[in-house]
Amino acid sequence: MQSNPDIKAPLWLLAELTYRCPLQCPYCSNPLDFARASEELTTAQWIEVFKQARAMGSVQLGFSGGEPLTRKDLPELIAVARELGFYTNLITSGIGLTAKKLDLFADAGLDHIQISFQASDETLNAALAGSKKAFTQKLEMAKAVKAHGYPMVLNFVLHRHNIDQIDRIIELCIELEADDVELATCQFYGWAQLNREGLLPTRKQIADAEKVVASYREKMAASGNLTNLIFVTPDYYEERPKGCMGGWGAIFMNVTPDGKALPCHSARQLPIEFPSVLEHRLDDIWYNSFGFNRYRGYDWMPEPCRSCDEKEKDFGGCRCQAFMLTGNADNADPVCSKSAHHGKILEAREEANHCQMTIEQLQFRHQRNSELIFKTSV
Ligand code: FES
């Protein structure tokens, strides 16, 4: 089915099993109109997707959502994926996880678990997640994950309301014996983009956090602590864009709960009709579909990307960000200072300097927007 020998197989398949989730984070990565996609692939349909991906050469399979633990067939899906030879990774909030489920996942052969936290203390965690019980449950499950002998990644999405606690966040991760810690500043897609004003940290907050991370890295190296701290800064404070997804249709494929195949988790919002795994084979989608070929290579690029000597490094940046901020996904990512739309990024930085929004106001606004969008989506 491969018609272009320059296109390599997708190494990483992300299976977004569901958009259902018990939490209500203001930076949720679900699409805004996720209520429209209420259908979910069946167990048999997911297994067929995994078989086709593995036959193409995919090696890593992430189970994500929404909250993938809401799928009762998760142990079966993990077992099939492992039998097929995938390296399997569960990306979860930890809500709904139990010691019994961990036993089932271990029996099924799950390789790796990532648990996300909202903050280092119960009060802020509850305010951000919209759930009072979430923090205690996450702590218990992080301990249980380690007790089961899993390599564990703890993920904290950082923003203006929790980034100043980064020292306490790192302390908590050390206490929980995390192997890897992702301190990932919010990326502005979906709900995070809608709530950006209340989330984007200031440049000073980022710089202060960077210093704290650097000092912990030094201290931990000196004491022989092997916890790996990964600090991801927001591209809103860069002058050159990120090479999003390692390039469009280069290494990554996302399948949504209702079976759309996407080159990134946000592409559903673009004015492109992406194919469904219910109607097309995965290899046909990857190699031949219009959507996956739309931004491959460099021929599609207008200026300033076309003549830029960094285009092979950043691929013109992120197509979804270009679309969200300029209305046209062909444009250079406005993060780039060469973009004619870079002013949008400068405005956002300025907005962050003057924002007074409290966490309560942010959550109130998020709830109100969720209700409004939900009503218009269904
Ligand atoms: Fe879609 Fe960057 S998130 S291309």
TrEMBL record:
Task: Cite the GO molecular-function annotations of the record.
Answer: 4 iron, 4 sulfur cluster binding; cyclase activity; iron ion binding; oxidoreductase activity; S-adenosyl-L-methionine binding
Task: Kindly state which keywords UniProt assigns to this record, in alphabetical order.
Answer: 4Fe-4S, Iron, Iron-sulfur, Metal-binding, Oxidoreductase, PQQ biosynthesis, S-adenosyl-L-methionine
Tell me the cofactor note: Binds 1 [4Fe-4S] cluster. The cluster is coordinated with 3 cysteines and an exchangeable S-adenosyl-L-methionine.
Question: Which Pfam families does UniProt cross-reference here?
Answer: Radical_SAM (PF04055), SPASM (PF13186)
Which residues does the annotation say bind [4Fe-4S] cluster?
A: 21, 25, 28
Q: Which InterPro entries match?
A: 4Fe4S-binding_SPASM_dom, Aldolase_TIM, Elp3/MiaA/NifB-like_rSAM, MoaA_NifB_PqqE_Fe-S-bd_CS, PQQ_synth_PqqE_bac, PqqE-like, Radical_SAM_PqqE_MftC-like, rSAM
What is the enzyme's main class? oxidoreductase
Q: Radical SAM core domain location, by residue?
A: 7-222
Record-listed E.C. numbers: 1.21.98.4
Pathway involvement?
A: Cofactor biosynthesis; pyrroloquinoline quinone biosynthesis
- Recorded protein name is PqqA peptide cyclase
What is the native source organism of this protein? Rosenbergiella nectarea
Q: What is the lineage of its organism?
A: Bacteria, Pseudomonadati, Pseudomonadota, Gammaproteobacteria, Enterobacterales
